[in-house]
Predict the structure.
Amino acid sequence: MGWGRGSEIMSEIIDTIQNNVKDKNTRKLIYKELVETFESYDCDTLEECLAMDDIYDKALKEIHPDWDWE
């Protein structure tokens, strides 16, 4: 069973990271770790956070290249 509030929590985290971590490589590494952690606890709504930060988008797409991204 997934938890739907995960994307709300992640959106707040994205705001904080985007405002405080200027290095794009570091940001992507942080996002990847967070996505993997959220998903390990059955969060399945993280795609709802797409378009908040292009670095987050890249991280999610690298983790899930098999998803339909169109």
About this structure: The CA atoms of residues 15 and 52 lie 8 Å apart.
